[in-house]
Known about the structure:
Layout lengths: L5 E10 L2 E11 L4 E5 L6 H8 L7 E6 L2 E2 L5 H10 E4 L13 H12 L4 H14 L4 H4 L8 H13 L5 E5 L7 H18 L2 E6 L2 H7 L2 E6 L2 E7 H6 L4 H8 L8 H12 L2
Amino acid sequence: MNAPVLSVTSLVKKFGHFTAVDDVSFELMPGASLGIVGESGSGKTTTARILAGLEQPTSGTVTLDGRAVEGHSRRTRLWQARRLQMIFQDPYGSFDPRQTIAQSIAEPMRLHVPGSAKEHRARVGELLDQVGLSSRAGESLPRDLSGGQRQRAAIARALGIAPRVLVLDEAVAALDVSIQAQILTLLDELRGDTGISYVFVSHDLAVVRYITDTAIVMRHGRIVERGETEQILRSPQHPYTRLLLDSIPSPDWDLDRVAQDRRALDLP
């Protein structure tokens, strides 16, 4: 239990001459939840995509469940997917529109989990119940569900193969506030029940405060601050972290001061 389930060392990702991720390192312990915070262009989503095997790093190492992830062969991708799953902001595009939700949830199990079709169907029923969806929802096509229901279905699909890590990229950003709260509560309960670890990518500091234990703050591809989430948000040490907090609208919000602070931060 003292070994990290996920370890990232000196991660770099370049697209031509542009460096999207620059010397990023962090660890995630079993059952823990890590936030990756930053604005658009900070490198947080590229980092998440590397973790999920959707992008290959230019250099650096991702170690998952004690093994360095190397190469992009089918065997490596299957091994990686069995241990780490990713939830996207809008999972609609990741569902086959011709399959029912129950069929989509069962599909990864057929690939990764031994068992008969009957056993998989029974497990799908358990997963639907676990994420608060009815059997009727399971019989529906993705287009017939609301955004919140689709996100619950995506979580059920990911949990079906019992991964060690779940990477959530802006997973509640597209949802209404009340639905956000339901999904965050569900995720918090699932972590307590299953011991799964989360990497939660978000620009929303309120969401990060609720769902994560520790956090890293990224700017221009680099980590500028790290530590316990509550400590970072209560007493930020880096000017960029302070700017993110000051940018949250409030009754005494001073937009001119925020703009001035941003200009000062961008000076060479």
